[in-house]
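Office hours follow-up: a student asked to see two folded examples consecutively, so here they are.
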Amino acid sequence: MPLGLQPKLLRVLQEGEVEPLGGNQLRPVNVRVIAATSRDLKTMMETGSFRADLYYRLNVLPIRLPPLRERREDIPMLCETLLEQIAEQGGEASRALTADGVARLAAYDWPGNVRELRNVLEQAVAQSDNRRLASADFPMLPETVVILPPVPDALTISGAPRARPLREAVAVAERIEILRALEETGWVKLHAAKLLGISRAQLYEKLAILGIVSEEAGS
């Protein structure tokens, strides 16, 4: 917002009155204002490009929307929705993602947030004939190598079981149950998720974290 326009908005917020263009009488207004920005307003106040009084008048109930890199667990669900929209606009069947495709997307930082994610998906759909988009279908993203440490089935000291960190024990148990559910359902993730009592988006997230990938994976 230009600096010269800011005091006019402040006056409306403070007084609850507006003067219509071409008019000469003030009219009362009763409105609630929702303001959104991707700019750093505190820095702009310091440089004199945003009025402090307007900032404090607007900043009554701040709501911060975290960037996509801070909510990677949303990526599978967002991709499913975006791929359906892209398919509808293109008049073709919707695509899906393999587990390693989800992992590739989840490993990227997404400085452009959801708009960039949609752009990448549109590129992949345009450039690939695969109905299930895998990691190789996203050459536009930088390569990210993730080395997962091996998870032992048992930790022992001189043949005797040894206690393990709780997080590691939970990861081992989750991996076993997820693999069991996938095997029982023929790697159809929708059915496996129902068997595990979680959503398909949650299952995709766990597959990416645990590094579980199969060329036979179903939708």
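And the second, which I mentioned at the end of office hours:
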Amino acid sequence: MDERAAGASVAEDATPFGFYGAMSASERRTFWGCAAGWALDGMDFMIYPLVIGTLISLWHISSSQAGLAATATLLASALGGWLAGYLCDRIGRVATLRLTILWFSACSLLCAFAQSFEQLLVARTLLGIGFGGEWAAGSILMGEMVRAEYRGRAVGSVQSGWAVGWGLAVLLQAVLFSTLPPETAWRWMFAVGALPALLVLYLRRYVEEPPLARESRRKQIAAGDRPAITEIFSGPYLRTTLLASLMMVGAQGSYYAMSTWVPRYLTAERGLSAVGSTSYLATLIVGSFLGYLTGAWLADILGRRRLFATFTVGAVVTLVVYMQAPLPAGAIWMLGFPLGFFSTGYFSGIGPFLTELYPTRLRGSGQGFCYNFGRGIGALFPALVGALATLTSLGNAITLFALTAYGLFFTLSFAFPETRGKQLDADG
């Protein structure tokens, strides 16, 4: 009996981390490799929102310009995610994962040497290509390596690595901005963002291609029928691709409208310093981490659609109170926990949900495009928030665009059948 068969013989465990005991050694190595990749991806992305205030002061740029760099990163991630998804179907999940990590690590290092906002904008745009591609490769890889009963918990737990990366970025900010002048500290933050390249050494040695994906590509080559990059827009896949892409716009736009600008909101409208806001962001991040893990468990217990609906309603209520209610500092600090919890927990169901929408031969292209199309259009939200903030308060701007996106996500989540427990196979 091989490792996967041994794992499959373990009775289903409904506890949040029961999936881990059912995994084989190779599956566990894949789990930690994907989780680390997503954590470091998150760290690299979240460095920029944390230094926005510093760059505005040093380079005398407007909030709209500062938001443009975040938007450009996300727009590029849409292209990167689609291309990486296609590469997953052509050259393999693991090879694509390694390539994307090397790409965004190198681009983070380029950011550290930027001499102007224009140079930083180019470097962040290039970083976005690898940033978008890493999620596509890692999520598909994990989704195909684990049993259907545990897919929500396993992929969702990998997604929690984003909160870990966010926490690392905040910790990095607290240390560097406490020990170095701002004009130097922000460069070192981007330089440290190049360290994820070391993860490739682990991936090369310990992480294997899922047997499901290997068999699918073998059949394609034997039949001379390799998928085209545009196949997800044809036949029975067109409706799925269009609706899932719009649904991801809602999921991504709401998150980025909030997360990109909350650090600036705390300093500009709540009067905190960059270092003083650390504990507020820490509460948000702890809530986010636990939201990911809870969402991962509920994705298997409640199903994908009920998870999306529950967490969206919770996020809307918490965001409105956080941004609009005249609360004292202590209350804002405490509200960071539920805000982080609800605004990220539904992401734990997105990876397995998209994995279950497409056949194996198109899973990379479909999942990579839909998720990152959402990023690309959702990328407009940070720039729009920055522009609207010149006419009203930053809190009002964040609230308006986040609520619009949440409404879209909530509505379209009911356009699909429940996919929990769907079995995957090499033929689709």
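Two things to take away from it. The radius of gyration is 20 Å. DSSP finds 20 helices and no strands in the chain.
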